[in-house]
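Field log, afternoon session.

UNIT: design team B
ACTIVITY: writing a sequence onto a fixed backbone
BACKBONE:
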């Protein structure tokens, strides 16, 4: 009887998480890697939203995880490990924001051009916004978001708007609206008061509401469906590969814009965009190949330009498409082979 009673006593169960946490505090690097692995992708996306650059996000995440590793013995467990990691990552990003220029798009620099500008020179002194591969987004249903869907929170319009907000307001908005932290938790993260957090949120929301379209790309894509979205992307790619201006124009809205960071000139309206498209990508650039992909929660294509020396089409740009209804309202062409990092696309195509 005594043996039976002993067998029914509850056993203390130590979870794998708690076990790894104890090992990591003791200096076990493998245990720390296992702890942070489920959060790496969402932390990287958070750093991208804060900084507007995938490469800056790479650096910030690496620095943040190093800080977390060194500071883990001081983690007291008063909050979840996830909350603590976001605190470390946010503070790391705020340090970087203070020392770097805000990320921009050509539309931030000046008015649009009425006709094609040939021989446009890249502006290397500008810190440009970069595209974000959808493959970097977390698929953990227990992770973010709160109000914004994950893909809404990396859409170009939203990330571009964030770059016009001071770092503390940017952090407060992301932690509250995207990640679901309370004002009190954010105050602890940013070492400030709840009143200051609420004030920062109010100012940040105003700027975002003034610059981000009410209809997100996720809503638009749900409305038109995957089939029509793929048809639009295929039509865009085919028209540019064939040099068919009429087919391209048929896919565009009347007020379409086209920009090409790191080039400063950009175009607004069907006439200006048609003039640019006819004289530059459809005429003077050469032969194209394009592969479909996704960036910033939006349809995109990897663009490859014929290179005579290489004897093949080489990676040239990532074109991110912003739709309104089933028409293209914005084309943002991120020029540079470095933008292909993380997209899983080949460096060249035949």
């Amino acid at each position: 009887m005594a043996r039976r009673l002993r067998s029914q006593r509850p056993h203390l169960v130590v979870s794998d998480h708690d076990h790894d946490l104890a090992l990591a505090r003791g200096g076990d690097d493998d245990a720390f890697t296992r702890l942070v692995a489920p959060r790496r992708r969402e932390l990287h996306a958070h750093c991208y939203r804060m900084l507007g650059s995938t490469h800056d996000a790479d650096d910030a995440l690496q620095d943040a995880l190093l800080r977390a590793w060194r500071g883990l013995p001081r983690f007291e467990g008063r909050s979840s490990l996830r909350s603590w990691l976001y605190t470390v990552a946010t503070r790391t990003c705020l340090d970087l924001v203070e020392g770097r220029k805000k990320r921009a798009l050509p539309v931030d620099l000046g008015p649009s051009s009425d006709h094609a500008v040939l021989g446009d020179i890249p502006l290397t002194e500008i810190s440009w916004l970069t595209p974000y591969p959808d493959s970097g987004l977390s698929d953990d249903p227990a992770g973010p978001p709160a109000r914004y869907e994950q893909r809404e929170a990396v859409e170009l319009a939203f990330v571009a708007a964030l770059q016009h907000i001071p770092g503390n307001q940017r952090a407060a908005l992301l932690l509250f609206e995207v990640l679901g932290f309370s004002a009190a938790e954010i105050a602890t993260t940013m070492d400030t008061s709840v009143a200051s957090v609420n004030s920062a949120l109010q100012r940040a929301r105003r700027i975002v509401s003034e610059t981000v379209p009410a209809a997100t790309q996720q809503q638009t894509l749900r409305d038109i469906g995957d089939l029509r979205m793929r048809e639009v992307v295929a039509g865009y790619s085919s028209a540019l590969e064939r040099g068919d201006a009429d087919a391209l124009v048929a896919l565009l809205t009347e007020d379409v814009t086209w920009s090409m960071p790191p080039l400063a000139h950009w175009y607004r309206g069907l006439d200006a965009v048609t003039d640019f498209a006819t004289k530059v990508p459809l005429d003077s650039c050469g032969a194209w190949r394009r592969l479909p992909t996704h960036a910033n929660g939006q349809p995109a294509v990897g663009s490859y330009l014929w290179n005579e020396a290489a004897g093949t089409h080489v990676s040239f740009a990532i074109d991110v498409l912003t739709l309104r209804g089933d028409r293209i309202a914005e084309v943002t062409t991120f020029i540079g082979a470095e933008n292909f990092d993380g997209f899983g696309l080949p460096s060249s195509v035949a």
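LOG NOTE: The first strand starts at residue 252 and ends at 259.
NEXT ACTIVITY: expression trials, pending approval
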